[in-house]
Amino acid sequence: MDDDFKKNVLKTGTTILGIVCKDGVVMASDRQITAGSSLVVGKNYLKTIPISDFLLLSFTGSVSDAQRITKILPAELKLKELRSRSKSTVRQAANLLGTILYSGARQSMMQVGNLIGGVNPDGSTELYTIEPAGSVLQVEDYDANFGSGMPYVLGFLERQYKKGLTVKEGVELAKEAIKSSTQRDVGSGHGIDVYTITKEGIKKVVTQSIESEYKDQ
Length: 217
Prior knowledge:
The chain is an alpha+beta fold. The chain has one domain (2-207): Aminohydrolase, N-terminal nucleophile (Ntn) domain (Glutamine Phosphoribosylpyrophosphate, subunit 1, domain 1, 4-Layer Sandwich), CATH 3.60.20. The chain is built from five helices and twelve strands. It has helices at residues 2-8, 63-84, 90-107, 150-160, 167-184; strands at residues 16-21, 24-30, 33-35, 39-42, 48-50, 55-61, 112-119, 125-130, 136-138, 142-143, 191-198, 201-209. Helix 2 (63-84) packs across helix 3 (90-107). The longest helix is centred in the middle third of the chain and has 22 residues, at 63-84.
């Protein structure tokens, strides 16, 4: 299983990222989906989506596994909240997703990694990264999980991220990080979607497409 993961980790053509800010969280992704490393099969696929009124999920990897997660996780969260009669925290949602991925990994390796961010019942915000085998880590600054754009994003953010930046600054940083990735990573491109998570809730703040243009020389 470890060998399979290593073989596929850089074949998951995607860029996702999350940035922790002093007043919230910023999450962003590109829109391109690929078959292997040579064929673009989609140019307008949303890889960051709200799964509840307080949780936002980004994914990298197999589209089928990602679609399965976006169906299972909201249903399991709803059942959990009905049983406990309380709203889940972001940590609880992240751990539930980790458990789902871990169970899937024991049967057949699920090729999907996730970032999950959200608003807690007390109004605080958090961001977690969950790798395909199910381990869960809280993100204290920024992360790009295991998409093919990860090296470019982390290299950019390593130099540009500053502790205590605002959500507004985080949005601009996320845009530039995605642009850096789409310039060099063949698995990423065709658009940018950026969301903010604050105590007021989840808001989509950037929707951009990348258009091909041919010029005479």
